Amino acid sequence: MNFSERPIGECQGALLAHSLLLGGERHAKGEVVTAALLEKAMAHGVRTLWVARLEAGDLGEAEAALAIGGALAGQGVRVADPALGRVHLHAAHDGLLAFDPATVHRLNAASDSVAIATLPPGTPVVAGALVASIKIVPYALAPAEVAALRLAEVRPIAVAPFAVSGQPWLLQTRLPETAEKLLRKTVETMTARLARLGATLAEGPVLTHAVAPLAEALRRAEAPLLLVAGATVTSDRRDVIPAAILAAGGEIVRVGMPVDPGNMLVVGRLAGRLVLGLPGCVRGPKRNGLDLVLEHWAAGQEISARSLARMGVGGLLEESGHPVPWGWSG
Fold first, then answer.
1. Which of 197, 228, 265, 286 is the most exposed place for a label (fewest CB within 10 A)?
2. Do the Cβ atoms of 50 and 18 come closer than 8 Å?
3. Same fold, 59-160 and 169-312
4. pTM to 2 decimal places
5. Alpha-carbon span 21 to 130, nearest angstrom
6. Rounded distance, CA 37 to CA 109, Å?
C-alpha cells in the first residue's frame, strides 16, 4: 500500500488518509476520492491530500478483518459486518468463553497492523455479548503480512453453552451452635447461583458435621454434582469434607484453589460425579471461586488439578474484605 501526501491531481481513486472538512461537510477517512470530491477540494483551495492507494496483492481493511474474524469465530460465536476496518465477534448464546490465548498472542505479534482484543477466557457471557474485536490499523495488509498470520492454523474462539443435565444436590453439615438461619441462607444463595446457569438445586439432608454420616450420604447420592456446605471451613486434606469423600470411595482432585475469594474450595470425584466442598463465602452472593468451577461444569469444560491451578491468573476477584496485613494503608 502506498501512503503519502500527493498533489491533488494525483489523488483520484485513492482513499482519504484523514477526514476532510470542506464547506461544513466532513468527508470520512477511508472515503474514495472521486472527481466530484477533487473539484470541491480544489474550490476550497486544497492543493495536496494525504491518501492511501492499495497495491497489487494488498488485502483491504474490511476483507482482512473479516478473514481474521472468520478464522477466530468458532462454535457459538458469530461475526458482525465490518465497519471502519473493524469486525466484532459476538456470543451466539449464553455460555462460557473458551479459547487458547496463545492464538491471539501470536496473531497480535505477527504484525502491528493487526489489533485483536478479547474478553478473558473463562468469562461467562450472554447471547449477543461482544467477546472479541479485530481491528486492521492501516487501510490494507500487504501479502507478506497476510501470510505471516497463518490463518489456517488459528485455534478458534468458542462459547461453550451452559447445558446442565440433572439436579445438583446440596448437603449441609451442622454443629450444635449452627443457626437455622445460616442453613436457609445457604440454600437461597446456592439456588440463585445455579439458576444463572440454568440449573435447579435439590436440597439434601442436614447432617452432623462428621466424616461417617457425610460419607454415607455421599455414597447414597445419585446427583451429577454434589455440593457440601460444611459447618466449618475445610483447612486441611484430613479435614471432615475431604476425609468423607475418601471414605465414600472417592478421590480428592484439589483442596484449596488460587482464586480469591473462594480459596478454601474442595474438589473431589466420586463414581464419576463431581463433589465440591464449599468455601464459607458461598453463603453470600459475591462472585467467588465456586462460581468459576460451576461455570466450567455447566459448560462441560475440564475440571482437573491442572485447570484449577490455571484459574489463578484472573482469579483475584472483587475485593474480598479480608484484613490487610502489615498495616498497609495504600
1. 286
2. yes
3. no
4. 0.89
5. 33
6. 38
3-state DSSP assignment of residue 24: coil
pLDDT tens readout for residues 206-239:
999 999 999 999 999 999 999 999 999 999 999 9
Q: DSSP letters along 109-134, please?
A: HH-TTEEEEEPPTT-EE-TT-EEEEE
Residues 6+ apart with CB under 8 A from 63: 82
Residue 46: pLDDT band by 50, 70, 90 thresholds?
very high
Residue 318: Cβ within 10 Å count: 10
β-pair type (251-255, 266-270) = antiparallel
Give 235-279 as a 3 state SS string: CCCCCHHHHHHHHCCCEEEEECCCCECCCCCEEEEECCEEEEECC
What radius of gyration, in Å, describes the C-alpha atoms of the chain?
A: 28
Q: Mean pLDDT across the stretch 317-321? A: 68
What architecture (CATH level 2) is domain 59-160? Alpha-Beta Complex (3.90)
Q: How far apart are CA 135 and CA 153, in angstroms?
A: 20
Those residues with Cβ within 8 angstroms of residue 96's Cβ, 6 or more apart along the chain or in another chain: 122, 123, 124, 125, 159, 160, 162, 295, 296, 298, 299, 301
What residue has cell string 498495616?
327
- Indicate the angle between helix axes 289-298 and 180-195, nearest 10 degrees: 40
Edge-to-edge strands of the sheet including 251-255? 202-208, 169-174, 225-229, 273-277, 266-270, 251-255
- Under CATH, which architecture does the 169-312 domain have? 3-Layer(aba) Sandwich (3.40)
Residue 92: CB partners within 8 Å, gap ≥ 6?
A: 76, 77, 78, 127, 159
* pLDDT tens profile 164-220: 989 999 999 999 999 999 999 999 999 999 999 999 999 999 999 999 999 999 999
H or E stretch at 48: strand 48-53
CA atoms within 13 A on the CB side of 41: 22
Q: Domain locations in the chain?
A: 11-43, 59-160, 169-312
